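tool_call: predict_structure(chain=1)
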Amino acid sequence: MTNHTLRDKVVVIAGGAKNLGGLLARQFAEAGADVVVHYHDDSGAGDAEDTAKAVRAAGRRAITVAGDLTQVGEVRRLFDLAVDEFGGVDVAVNTVGKVLRKPIVETTEDEYDAMFAINAKSAYFFLQEAGRRLNDNGKIVNLGTSLLAAFTDGYSTYAGGKAPLEHFTRAAAKEFADRGISVTTVAPGPMDTPFFYPQETPERVEFHKSQALGNQLTQIEDIAPLITFLVTDGWWITGQTIFANGGYTTR
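tool_result:
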């Protein structure tokens, strides 16, 4: 019977230096996994190394890899380095994203291109490379957004850029199924991280809180167990986008 634990597995985490990705790296190591901690550029190097040290302190192996995942060659290099270092990859989690809240009539072409490159293109080619490189019975999780189920203003390029992940996930789940690889997207509500606050006024932050259980934003500590489940005992769930948001939105 296939082992669906993280013991002695190799995990690649895109955006693994801090916030949700950093928490996952630490928890996966405690569950027995070796971790490849990806970060975007030099500004994240310190956080990435801190996370790698925490993985090693848990008795597991870790490497850090910098790369701009909007460049397909960098996605391939990330997986190349993982395979070269550890001999294979079992789990791939993509937490990479960028948020922008701006009216459509004020959005520039450069902003549009950047948002779709980070939120859609990088996710597509991360899925592609994971499908090529993961060991049989592997697991892939992408991070989406609960704004996909919201009727709201301002987030056209963010929610729009994340929307394709649902369709990428469905296609990949079918295409990779014969190798036992599950593919899911987790769509949290607005998360209580530095990623969120620059886009919102204090009043809108309070509104977002009011829409969820406990009058709070989504906590990374509430999302990490779900992703852990999906890459272990929840392997039978595939092709799905899961809205984990305390009732912030649903459909």
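agent: The CA atoms of residues 124 and 168 lie 7 Å apart. Proceeding to next step.
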